[in-house]
User: Fold these one by one.
Assistant:
Number 1:
Amino acid sequence: MRDRVETQLLKEGQRLDYSPTRRSPRIRLQVPVFLRATDLSGAEFVELTKTLNISATGACIASAHVLRPDQLVHLTIPAPSPSPSSVIPSETPPISARVLRQDAAGDMRLFGLEFLRPLE
């Protein structure tokens, strides 16, 4: 099954990273997200940023803010303008995550996040 998924992703130009120590494979996929959290001074902020990779259990995101290890953050995927159809939701529910690690990348920081509940 994993080989079939990996082959399909490679055909679509995306790369699948799989490690036996990971709970789920990562897909190098840039998805715009709103990051809602508090900075080191305790001020709340909302930042439009993006994922660098994502899996069912976590993501790596870029941010101009500094976050603390184990800090809880919330991600929301922007949705297009509300549709008159009741089939398409007007917004996505927030995804809660915990900061596991961070790395400096120039004036940005890269954060490894673990979702509190795996994506389905």
Number 2:
Amino acid sequence: MNTQLKQDVIEWDVANWSHLIKLWQPVLDGLPRDSKVLAIGERNGGLSLWMALQGFQVVCTDREGPTEQARELHKKYGVGLKITYRDFDLVNTEDFDTTYDIIIMKSVLGGVKEQYGNATSRTDATRQKAIDNIYKLLSPKGIFLSADNLQGNMFLRLIKRLKNKQSGWHYFSIQELNDLCKQFSSVSVQSFGIIPTKFSVPILNKAAYIINSFLWQLIPSNSAYIAFITARK
């Protein structure tokens, strides 16, 4: 995947979050291209682009529908005919008439709320309801792929507290994600990212990624700040 495409798919902290491509591509390679895909929380349509470029038919969603930027992005890459767009509220949906072979999302689960605009409704029960709905929406033997924010190492936790980011998002432990997905027949939660790759100078991001790849093999998995879930119904 070239640099520009990777940027368009991942959007932020690209070097670290793009680790999902390495982990999920082998899973996707084994699936028929007529598999139906539901991409949740897409906003600007990055994951939908990635899936459509591989030949999948994708339903690209966000709570109030994807942005116009998503449509323009998909048109730019010539995959507009592979993608449909709709509003979708993961927590409150009752639309289980259609099932999907693949459900994919990135940095969504930590922000789900029962009531939009009410931060107090971002609860354990709400997150479990979201996962339960995903399970219902999957076809038999369907696959759920999600990249989520972990609590990370002590330094990153301190930064989050200083910036008051803890109050605006839920950061998971690996055990918590495993518990949320326990109804699936198999669950793999892998992690990556010790140092964020958000530098304005590309070579520094490459250096940080190399350091991450080295540290990832030496320190506990919960020290990373990104989790990658692969769950099979």
Number 3:
Amino acid sequence: MPKGSPELTASRRDEIISACEKLYQTMSFKEITLKEISVETSFSRPSIYNYFQTKEEIFLAIMQREYQGWADQLFALCQENERLSPEAFAKAVAGSLDERRQLLKLLAMNHYDMEENSRLERLTDFKAAYGASLDGMRACLKKFFPGTDTEGFIFAFFPFLFGVYPYCVATQKQLDAMREAKIKFEMHEVFDIIFACVMRLLGENR
């Protein structure tokens, strides 16, 4: 790790993470390299290795940032409201994830690769942010819906998130293939599909 204050190190890591996130908006996971990322930053490619050893670690850091931001939203939702109806809660959760399409995209496409090709300490940092999102959801459920099977909700909802993105975003090639295969298929909005899931889970558990 290069010498410098923790604040400077965090700032440089954030610059690298943001550069990768920007590239991911127009390029695929496979297309993005450390060289491509370095072009978008003030660093040379060798300098990036001071902060991340693989591109998978950078993508994992994107997910870590997304999970932590989502966890903060969930805890704020819990603290700022005394009561929420199932519909209001479902709208809040759906809206919070609609803002985090990068997270949903990464969950659907490259989650295993990112974890497998990252150092244990980077994976541990990521798991802490993921755990915070679980705790934020638990806090909301226990406060707003005390009769709900909290763990049952979580272990249905969180795996469900891995499959949201493909039902909301498709390439033209994928759409053409589904038409050729004569599959009756309709693309959904992120908000709508998550809202429906939360309402269904709350209805089943109450």
Number 4:
Amino acid sequence: MIQPTLTIYGADWCPDCRRSKQFLFNQNIPFTWIDVDQDENASDLVKQMNNGNRIIPTIIFEDGSFLAEPSDRALADKLGIPA
């Protein structure tokens, strides 16, 4: 099994989070899901990364870079795959 190299910080109620998760699922890209509503430390991390704003999804990549609330196109471009 491929180990996830992406971590998505989001919430179940968030439509952008569901869209990003579905995009990655459709591309067979494994990821770790962390619900910021269930994990206060995760919520604090998202705020820290986004200048005090709780922007979700925040997706952290293996190289330590991240995208906040990316479009499918931005996510595909970052991953080097077709959108």
